[in-house]
Amino acid sequence: MAGVKEIARRLAALERQLAEVRQDAAAARVLAGAADRALSEAMRALAAQTRALSALRETQREHQQQTQDGFAKATAGMAEITACLQPVINRS
C-alpha cells in the first residue's frame, strides 16, 4: 500500500492539476465571451447588409417600372407619329 508520503505527493500533484484546470476553465470562459461578442457583431452586420440589399432591390424595382413606363410612352408616341405620317406615306 502507498505510504503517507506517496499519498501526500499524489495529493499535491492533483492540487496542481486542479489549479491548471481552473485556469484553463477561466480562459475558456473569456474566449467564449469574446466569441459571443464577435458573433453578435457579425449578426448585426449581416442584418444591416440584408436591410441595405432589400432597399436596393426595392429601388431597382421602382427604376425598372419607371423604365417600362417610359418605353410604353415612347411606343405610344411612335404609334401616334406613324398614324399621323401614314396618310402622307400612302399618297406617295
UniProtKB/TrEMBL annotation:
Coiled-coil residue spans: 4-66
Keywords: Coiled coil, Lipoprotein
Superkingdom of origin: Bacteria
Protein name as it appears in the record: Outer membrane murein-binding lipoprotein Lpp
